[in-house]
Write a structure and sequence with these properties.
Length: about 230
């Protein structure tokens, strides 16, 4: 009887292991690729302003049901997913509306507010990155045309200058013909939610007042992560 019980136990363990491997195989990991863009828009009592960066790093891991192909059938609902995205704060640059560089002085003020400037005492940068961690991905709407985006409700934690806040936003997921995926979205946050005082530059005697609300607009390009090459004997 004990022998039969032992054999049954081994079979059960093998079955569980097989199911676990199958579940792992159903997950797809995407890595960040070039072609991404981050834009931040704000206001002041003098003029509107904008900064841009073209590097968004990180990865995304998704389970079954994630639309990886254009026109793929997808069922609305929650999809197993996790993602981590980051931007080097000092990769952001202020620009004119036509895209030309705007002001090194403004860039310096921005890095200081983001705590991305070197601390003279420690010679270290306190918070070199703006980071985001996805915690929930829910398919809300499928495309109306084959090449259109899938619309998702998301929830995640945004960390700016060392302060983390949970935010919700709608994002579009657009599968590309070359297996890449474009994730895009727009959301508005307040600087003060991240303990950042809206700048009033001393170089302008404090006469320039910056609005608290800023709009974040992004396009994040991803592609399936390649499996590591097998070691040769």
């Amino acid at each position: 009887m004990k022998k039969h019980t032992l054999i049954a136990g081994h079979i059960a363990l093998l079955a569980l292991a097989t199911l676990s491997l199958q579940a792992a195989d159903q997950k797809t990991t995407y890595a960040a690729r070039s072609g991404s863009k981050m834009r931040i828009e704000g206001t002041s009592n003098v003029h509107d302003w904008q900064v841009e960066g073209s590097i968004i790093g990180g990865f995304m891991e998704v389970g079954p049901g994630f639309p990886a192909e254009p026109g793929q059938t997808a069922v609305p609902g929650k999809i197993e997913a996790k993602a981590e995205a980051f931007i080097s704060a000092r990769s952001l640059r202020s620009i004119e509306k036509d895209g030309r560089p705007y002001s090194d002085a403004m860039d310096g003020i921005m890095y200081e507010k983001l705590k991305a400037s070197e601390d003279p005492a420690t010679k270290k940068v306190p918070y070199p990155r703006i980071e985001y961690r996805l915690s929930e991905l829910v398919l809300k709407e499928s495309p109306k045309a084959k090449e259109g985006p899938y619309v998702f409700d998301t929830k995640g934690d945004l960390m700016v200058a060392g302060v983390s806040k949970t935010i919700s936003m709608v994002v579009n997921v657009t599968p590309m013909a070359d297996k890449k995926v474009k994730i895009s979205g727009t959301t508005t946050i307040k600087m003060t939610d991240f303990k950042i005082d809206p700048p009033a530059p001393k170089i302008a005697l404090g006469l320039i007042k910056t609005g608290d609300d800023v709009k974040l607009i992004f396009e994040w390009m991803l592609a399936p992560r390649k499996a590591p090459a097998a070691a040769s004997n």
